[in-house]
Design a protein that fits this description.
The protein is mainly α and 165 residues long. It has eight helices and two strands, in the order αααααββααα. Helices cover 65% and strands 2% of the residues. The chain has a two-stranded antiparallel ribbon. Helix 2 packs antiparallel against helix 3, helix 2 (11-22) runs parallel beside helix 4 (56-75) and helix 3 (28-41) packs across helix 5 (84-100). The chain starts with a helix and ends with a helix.
Amino acid sequence: MSVSIVSTVSPLIESARNECALKNGATASSERNYALALNEGFVAEWSTFEANDVSDSGKIVKAEKELFYKALHAAHHNGKHPNPSTVWARVRKYGNEAMYGVTESDGGAKHGKSVDLRITDSLVPLYKFLKRQDALNDKQDRVLTHIASALNAFGLDLALIESGK
């Protein structure tokens, strides 16, 4: 996919991208506005794509990121933004927060993860830890059974989890 295709996807996205670049990633409001524009008129769940995604949608997201980096560099006072990946990471974070909501952990930290992802991110390591133990008492064994049941409810294959894949 060419970069020019991405830049014509939405004038709203292009305007938000340029506004954020002009602010040099210095204001959270411009980053949030850019993220919201991407959420409204871009690839579905764009903020979840990783840099190494080779799908068609992943290529479109990568092209948009490259356009953003180019705009950040052009707007920077010395012609090269020192860390465009940090700004892009914040934009992605704001996009995730807007799409999936912000959840609070016990420590008050904010995370831009969906509830399902938070549950599996918490339960899989605990399941693996309990399976590695040489011996479990009755209470711990019941907890392991419930965790396994919860992971099954999410459609996760326990054999794959145990094999580390």
